[in-house]
From TrEMBL:
Protein keywords: Membrane, Signal, Transmembrane, Transmembrane helix
Skewed-composition ranges (Gly residues): 754-786
Keyword Iron in record: no
Region annotation Disordered: where it falls in the sequence: 738-855
SUPFAM superfamilies in the cross-refs: Periplasmic binding protein-like II
Annotated signal peptide: 1-25
Biased composition (Low complexity): 790-826, 833-842
Transmembrane intervals: 860-880
Protein's recorded name: Uncharacterized protein
Length: 887
């Protein structure tokens, strides 16, 4: 019998090999604001309801209020602030309000609440109701609310109902506001066909947000651009009179519900059902006339660099993604080179940049250094960005209050990563009717249902509410996969540096009796080498023999599906989408082609959201997600803010490669954020002069204007820490050396004692093992031998991948053209012949790793990509696209 550990290793190998395909293809876009801590930008706008409806400049009144209207007193005094209105992309903005009246009750929507939606429309006067995304069916109710307020119907009691346009008459019956798509303005789409454009998973409408006892409230709104929502068209390129490309503007519309129904009846919470709630769709005329509209100036989703210009390729770590989006327009301005950027596994980027094949990319972004093959091209490293891996939060109390402060220890994160909570295992005892609790495995008996009910967590976070049981859907921690990443290895190194976590991973119960899932204990995760990918026991399935559901039943990747990227993790967490499939749909098509498959659970509604996501600091800022405070080796809980990221850089130690630093997970620097990461541009020196000059220009820009924090195109987006003087000097020196080869010196090192920091080969490395190499690693665990030679398998694996063990929804479809958008949720990959871009026969090794740092080969890439792509393509609702990441 094959052990659980071996199954996990085999599947980890297969999943890691998907790294051969690029994850996402990118085009230029502007950066996003940081509203995670309710910060306002220079373009923030505050509007008073009583001042009237404003137009294009967010100040000129295009429609005044009527003081005699029966709703005037309901809204007089209401002021709404939108945190950012310029340089908008696919992101989140913070909508706050004050000066209003509290919502009655504790969780329901009786009155005095807001609804928020995104619309396209007239650039001067604003949108019509038919221009707005509203009324997706099947979404969970935000507490008790009048049902008509959730849809697109015109209320019969609305005194203005008789004046609606004739085309509001729904051919299917009733009077509804149709939707008119921005990309098909002559069409009208009526309910229920609106779900062909947007549904419960793709809508961004905010169905209801309460006002607190002080008259204040907050809604974090996820804005969509033309890539997310072609039917809105926001950010579609528009050429101005000076031939400059701008993005099509759109509108944020906030509709208040007061204490009057649309027919004029005063709401009475103690009355009968008919008068108990404020009623009416926000699109019904009387309520629509009470709207506050704010114009949003969108960055163009494409066209900021010359169309058809030859692109200079860059690839690698996703940690630099948001910075590259911002820098690309600045780099191509003034006849500068146009740079493409393709995100892929760090290890694959390092492998490709060492290739001497003609046309191979000359620059790869990476955290760990690259060591070229003997006799191969030399590689230089230049730091370009400082950011961090983060655990982002979307947790709300029942009344909608946002939880911003959460503390996590390495052991708590280890519990989440090892499927050790009951609800993280298929067949967790509350998941299915008829499940016999006496059959609970012994190891699960003392384990909590989920993180929010773990005594270790509640003792650290007494103010954080538990997850609502009716929203049992697991996957409380969204993780990106199945590709490897240096960031994952650093997360595991942080865990392995903690004595409590190590003891628990080795099988010792915590103080409350919780133990590790034994399938993961067999993996020896308590000791180096740390894996650089996410492990999932994908063969763990639950099948109720009394049900009609066919074998294998409900499996790990149905319960805990991967996100496609760090940004996708953050995006889905912001929308409250756990992603797990828990509802059996007998009419759905399974990956094997038969009838019957699991469907995705509904997004979590307001007041029910309880989501964490492993992401990067830039993506957390992009989607306005607070981040957890992590306990460092000094015992302090620290946020990834500027001061703690700077301390994290200060606490780094040299690697074996001169000028490249790495995290010291055992540092005693109390301020150091433990997952601070520097992204380096690894450049191959043996390129033609034009290519070297272009890459030198990129480095010069990245170390110069690109380090100016801001929201405008070309600046450093929120979530990054500007490079310090030493790091900038290093990058500028590398850039100069690239264009003056005759005077080329070794790049300036940051360790006065020379490379390697001594004879031990680096942090946690033994002898020649280097980073994480230990004394040579364990072949069964996917490490390296003592010389740093690659064992031929991705980290965490001991056997060739077994594609049959892949869960049906564990992968993504790949496309061959990195300049074109992949299919929804798909990943961009290499040429159709299965080789990575710019690399010849994938079975021929072209690079080795820095000693002790594994780089997986691609022998099985095509097979795995085909299987995962084909299976993933049939596995239910399409993954949400990621704005400019799919451009």
């Amino acid at each position: 019998m094959v052990s659980s550990a071996l199954r996990i290793r085999a599947v980890s190998a297969a999943l890691a090999l998907v790294a051969g395909m690029g994850l996402l293809a990118y085009e230029p876009a502007a950066p996003a604001a940081n509203a995670a801590d309710n910060e306002l930008t220079d373009s923030a706008v505050t509007l008073s309801w009583s001042d009237g409806i404003v137009g294009a400049d967010n100040s000129t009144v295009v429609e005044e209020r009527d003081p005699e209207h029966f709703m005037y007193d309901d809204f007089d005094g209401l002021e709404v602030t939108v945190s950012q209105t310029d340089d908008i992309q696919a992101q989140a903005v913070d909508v706050t309000w004050s000066g209003w009246n509290p919502t009655p009750g504790t969780a329901d929507f009786i009155g005095n609440y807001l609804q928020v939606m995104q619309c396209w429309g007239d650039q001067e006067t604003g949108p019509l109701p038919e221009n707005c995304v509203w009324g997706a069916e099947g979404m969970p109710l935000p507490g008790k609310i009048e049902l008509g307020s959730l849809f697109r119907g015109v209320s019969a009691s609305d005194p203005l109902a008789g004046g609606v346009p004739p085309h509001y008459q729904n051919p299917a019956g009733g009077v509804h506001v149709p939707f008119r798509p921005a990309n098909a303005e002559d069409e009208l789409v009526y309910p229920p066909n609106i779900e062909t454009l947007f549904d419960r998973w793709t809508t961004n409408e905010v169905r209801g947000v309460r006002t607190d006892a002080d008259g204040n409230g907050e809604a974090i709104f996820t804005v969509q651009n033309a890539i997310d929502a072609p039917h809105l068209g926001c950010g579609s390129p528009v050429e101005g009179p000076d031939q400059a490309v701008d993005g099509r503007d759109c509108w944020l519309v906030i509709v208040p519900h007061g204490m009057h129904q649309v027919g004029g009846t005063l709401v009475d919470p103690a009355a009968t059902q008919d008068a108990q709630f404020a009623d009416g769709s926000p699109l019904t005329p009387t309520l629509w006339n009470q709207r506050i509209q704010v114009q949003l100036d969108f960055a163009p989703v494409s066209g900021t660099c010359p169309v058809g210009a030859e692109q200079r390729a860059t690839i690698g770590s996703e940690l630099v993604a948001e910075a590259m989006f911002s820098w690309q327009p600045g780099l191509c301005a003034g006849d500068g080179a146009t740079f493409s950027y393709l995100s892929m596994a760090d290890s694959e980027g390092r492998r490709q940049v060492t290739s001497d094949v003609e046309g191979a990319t000359g620059l790869a972004y990476t955290y760990s250094p690259v060591t070229p093959v003997e006799g191969g091209p030399e590689i230089v490293h230049a730091p370009v960005a400082v950011s961090g891996l983060a655990i982002a939060l979307n947790i709300e109390e029942l009344d909608g209050t946002v939880v911003r402060d959460v503390r996590l220890t390495p052991r708590l994160v280890a519990k989440l990563l090892t499927q050790s909570y009951l609800h993280d295992v298929p067949g967790g005892y509350q998941l299915f009717a008829g499940f016999d609790e006496s059959e609970i495995p012994e190891w699960q008996v003392e384990n909590p249902e989920d993180l929010s009910r773990d005594p270790e967590f509640t003792e650290l976070n007494p103010e954080v509410p538990p997850k609502i049981r009716s929203q049992w859907g697991a996957n409380m921690l969204r993780i990106a996969g199945p590709y490897p990443a240096d960031a994952w290895r650093e997360l595991w190194r942080w865990i392995q540096a903690d004595d409590e976590a190590v003891a628990w991973l080795n099988g010792e119960p915590d103080e409350h009796g919780m133990v590790i899932n034994p399938a993961y204990q067999e993996l020896n995760l308590d000791e180096p080498p740390a894996p650089d990918s996410v492990l999932r026991n994908v063969e763990n399935c639950y099948h109720n023999p009394e049900s009609s559901i066919p074998e294998p039943g409900y499996c790990t990747l149905d319960l805990l599906p991967f996100a496609t990227s760090f940004a996708d993790s953050a995006h889905r967490a912001r929308l409250g989408q756990s992603g797990n499939r828990a509802d059996w749909d007998g009419y759905a098509t399974s990956p094997s082609g038969g009838l019957g498959w699991w469907s995705e659970v509904d997004p979590q509604g307001p007041g029910w959201r309880w989501q964490l996501a492993v992401t990067d600091t830039a993506s957390a800022d992009l989607y306005s997600l607070p981040t957890a405070s992590l306990r460092n080796a000094a015992g302090e809980f620290v946020q990834p803010d500027e001061a703690n990221l700077a301390a994290g850089v200060e606490a780094m130690v040299p690697t074996d490669v001169d000028g490249v630093l790495q995290i010291d997970p055992e540092t005693d620097n109390a301020a150091a954020y433990p997952l601070t990461m520097i992204t380096y541009a690894a450049v191959r020196e043996e390129q033609d002069e034009e290519a070297l000059a272009d890459y030198a220009a990129l480095l010069t820009y990245a170390a110069g204007p690109g380090q100016t924090p801001g929201l405008a195109a070309g600046q450093l987006p929120p979530g990054y820490l500007p490079l310090n003087d030493d790091l900038r000097a290093q990058t500028l020196a590398v850039a100069e050396d690239l264009v003056t080869p005759d005077e080329r010196d070794d790049p300036p090192g940051l360790n006065p004692n020379g490379p390697g920091g001594g004879d031990d080969g680096g942090t946690e490395g033994g002898g020649d093992g280097g980073v994480d190499g230990g004394d040579g690693g364990d072949d069964s665990g996917g490490g390296l031998d003592g010389t740093g030679a690659d064992d031929g398998l991705p980290p965490g694996s001991g056997d060739a991948p077994d594609p049959a063990a892949l869960a049906p929804n564990g992968g993504n479809e790949s496309t061959g053209d990195p300049t074109q958008p992949p299919a929804d949720g798909a990943a961009a990959g290499g040429p159709d012949d299965g080789t990575a871009p710019g690399v010849d026969d994938p079975s021929t090794p072209v690079a080795q790793s820095t000693p002790g740092e594994p780089i997986g080969p691609m022998q099985y890439a095509l097979l795995v990509v085909l299987i995962v792509g084909l299976l993933g393509a049939t596995a239910g609702p399409a993954v949400l696209k990621l704005g400019p990441r799919a451009a």
